[in-house]
Each structure stands twice: as structure tokens, then as C-alpha cells.
Amino acid sequence: MLALIDSGSFLRGPFALFFLFASPAAAIAVALRGLDPFGRFLTSVAGAVVVDMLVAQGMLAAHRWSVESGIIAVAVISVLIPLPILVRHMHRRTTADKFP
To answer: Which of 2, 25, 70, 74 could form a disulfide with 48 if both were Cys (CB 3.0 to 4.6 A apart)?
Structure first.
């Protein structure tokens, strides 16, 4: 939030970097519930690096790089990653309610 409101706080940089790393890592970890904890951790860390690099590469290739748009792009991707799992879970839940 500090980066989006253009705050002059010294915490802006560290919090932005933490969000850029933790947001996709948490989204990928949610999507990989079936793995053991160590494999889930390694996969989510690698996936977070890949998401960040792909966003940066895409924005640089399009000549549209800015910190705010990078944070927004990573946030949108992080929301979209677990969305199919949540939709499938809701579908199973409603199907189970119809047929006891």
C-alpha cells in the first residue's frame, strides 16, 4: 500500500519487495495443498521467482515498467492463481449438497 500511495516512508522499498515475493509464493502454496511441506515450500518459492521475472520481462518488453504497475500486476496474478482451485472446491460443495 505504501508503494501505491507514493509514500516517502523508508519502509516502502522493503515492504514492496516482501509483497512481490510473498504474494505469489502464498498463492502457489495454496494451490499445492497435496505436496509435503518441504516440496510445497520449494515449489512456491521457485514459482514466486518465476512470476516476478515474467511480470518484469513482460513489462520491460512492452516499455511500460513502473513500480506501481508491477505491484498491481503481481497482485492480480496472485489472486488468479488459486482461483480455479476455489471454484472447483465450491462446485464440489454445491454438488455434494444436492446429492446427499
So the answer is: 25
φ and ψ at 33, to 5 degrees?
A: -65, -25
Cell 513502473 belongs to residue? 66
Number of residues assigned to the chain: 100
| SS3 sequence of 12-68 | HHHHHHHHHHHHHHHHHHHHCCCCCHHHHHHHHHHHHHHHHHHHHHHHHHCCCCCHH
CB atoms within 10 A of CB 85: 14
SS3 10: coil
Kindly report, residue by residue over 7-66, the tens digit of the pLDDT: 677 777 788 888 889 999 999 999 888 889 999 999 999 999 999 999 999 999 999 888
